[in-house]
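Collaborator request, handled under Task 6.
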Amino acid sequence: LSGGFPYGHLTSISGASATGKSLIAMHSLTTHLLLHCNSSAAWVDTLGTFSPSLLQQVVSSRTNNDSKTTSSILDRVQIMRVFDIHGLIEAVDELRTGHLDRERHQRVVNDSEDEASEEEELPPEPFNGTRAIVIDTISQPITSLMTAGPLQAQASMVGVARSLSDLARRYNICTLLLNTATYTHTQEDNLPSAFSAAASKPALGNVYAHCVDVNILL
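C-alpha cells returned to the collaborator:
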C-alpha cells in the first residue's frame, strides 16, 4: 500500500470478525519496531482479546526465529487494557504524557552534553518513545455509549479522534484504529466499495469516516 501505513495520520482498518484486522496490525507493528530500534509501540486492547502468543509468533516469523531480536521487539510493546471510553481517553493521555516526559528528559540531557567536553564520544541515539499505536477495537468503547444516546457517543468519538490525531501529528505516530463492519443494502450510486458485490461498510457511521485520514475496508 504505497510503502505502508502513513505516520502522523489516523488509519482505520474495518472488517467483520475473523477478517485479519488484528493480524495485519501485528505485522505492521512488527515492521515498525524492526525498522526503528529506538522507539516503542502501544497496543490498546478494548475487547480483552489480545493474544501475546500470536504476537510472538508473528515477530518470530519476521525475525527468522532469532530469539534475541524477537525478545527485543516484544520488550518494546506496551499492552494497555481498557474497558470503556474513559479508559481509552486515559490511555491516550498516558501516551501523550510519556512523550512530554521524554521531551523534558531530552532537554536536560542536551543541556548536560553542551557542558561536556567536545572530545567525548557522541551519545547514543535518543529514545523516540511510542511511534506506533494500535487500538483494537475503536468501535467497542463507542458502541457501548449508544445506550446513553447516539449524540453523546458521536461527541465522545469525535473527541477521542481529535486527541489521537493531535498526538499522531505532533509526534509523527503511525496510528491504526481497528473497526468492525456492518452489512448494508445501499443504492447503486452510494456503494461503500467500488466492487458491487461488497455488502458491508465500516461501523460507527459517516461521522467516523470523517474522523480518520485513511479508511480501509476488508
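The cover message to the collaborator said: "The chain has seven helices and eight strands. The helical segments are 21-35, 52-62, 67-74, 85-115, 139-143, 150-171, 205-209. Please let us know whether this matches your experimental observations."
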